[in-house]
Q: What sequence folds into this?
């Protein structure tokens, strides 16, 4: 499987790290991934025969712009041109999230589809703004589109619903989908600190960005709620359809009152199949499996036959998210193998 990697930040380096670490093991399993190009903002490195694990490790260690590589560097080439011109089966798109326009990721993804390449992405922006259109375009071009790292990071929240609950009917979904806001609310509740102090702690620990609105205003949770609504419940919704409230106005007094009732306040993304998806702070019982603390994420699926099923795990981290990319690549490989056998 020849792979074009677009984006070489934290997640992109995590992808090359995992593929390098597990290369020999995966080849033994019959999966032979070859990164033939890495495209970043300054250009690309391209080797149609595949960049060796040693070369990938050297590029990551040196830290200079990847296009400066003396052997395979191509300074100035655009990612769109790399996707169009380099022969590969899969494009892995891991550029930074942009929820205003979804660029440049959405152009990278559509270019890949139109050139007959399968796509794996960890980028929530294109899915939040145009998931119905993108899934239709993938089907039209007869390619596979996978994005398990967009919800739950390395925790298989999408796969759990699609595979483990197959045959059941999922009636609704609710989840804690953002580790940063969950950490802040947990700190406020458990250590009785103000919202601002809890946010500062999250920033010092690297859980929150210096500009934290994506998390604390509920945008990240809303993006993930849109993905769940489309992929699991087949709702044709985008980010603008979500009724969203963040956690800025949650106070210690509100948390105390909830505690008296045996509850915690959590930022919950909800989809019930009837109303608009919502993201807002709500009270949930402390005894609920959904009531996790710290940076953990959790999703509860309300099923017709299996009642409530909950999956819990870390929702972020470069290696965890890169692990989701590997999972998606293996899924594509299995689908391609199945087609050859039918």
A:
């Amino acid at each position: 499987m020849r792979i074009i990697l677009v984006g070489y930040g934290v997640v992109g380096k995590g992808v090359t790290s995992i593929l390098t670490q597990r290369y020999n093991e995966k080849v033994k399993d019959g999966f032979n991934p070859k990164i033939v190009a890495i495209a970043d903002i300054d250009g690309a490195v391209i080797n149609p025969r595949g960049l060796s694990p040693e070369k990938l490790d050297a590029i990551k260690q040196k830290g200079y712009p990847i296009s400066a590589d003396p052997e395979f560097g191509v300074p100035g080439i655009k990612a769109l041109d790399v996707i169009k011109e380099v022969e590969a089966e899969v494009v892995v798109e891991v550029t930074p999230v942009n929820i205003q326009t979804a660029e440049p990721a959405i152009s990278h993804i559509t270019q890949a589809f139109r050139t007959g390449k399968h796509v794996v992405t960890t980028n929530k922006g294109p899915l939040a703004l145009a998931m119905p259109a993108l899934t239709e375009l993938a089907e039209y071009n007869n390619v596979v589109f996978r994005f398990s790292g967009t919800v739950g990071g390395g925790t298989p929240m999408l796969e759990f619903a699609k595979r483990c609950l197959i045959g059941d009917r999922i009636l609704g979904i609710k989840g804690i989908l953002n580790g940063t806001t969950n950490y802040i609310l947990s700190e406020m509740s458990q250590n009785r600190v103000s919202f601002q102090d809890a946010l500062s702690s999250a920033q010092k620990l690297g859980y929150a960005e210096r500009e934290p609105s994506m998390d604390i205003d509920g945008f990240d949770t809303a993006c993930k709620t849109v993905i769940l609504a489309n992929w699991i419940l087949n709702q044709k919704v985008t980010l603008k359809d979500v009724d969203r409230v963040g956690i800025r106005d949650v106070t210690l007094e509100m948390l105390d009152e909830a505690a008296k009732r045996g509850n915690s306040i959590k930022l919950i993304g909800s989809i019930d199949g009837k109303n608009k998806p919502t993201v807002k702070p709500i009270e949930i019982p402390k005894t609920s499996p959904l009531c996790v603390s710290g940076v953990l994420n959790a999703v509860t699926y309300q099923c017709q036959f299996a009642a409530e099923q909950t999956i819990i795990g870390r929702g972020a981290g470069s290696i965890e998210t890169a692990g989701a990319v590997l999972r998606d690549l293996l899924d594509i490989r299995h689908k391609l193998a199945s087609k050859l056998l039918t």
In short: DSSP finds 13 helices and 13 strands in the chain. The first strand starts at residue 2 and ends at 6. The chain has two domains: 2-154+319-341, 157-314.
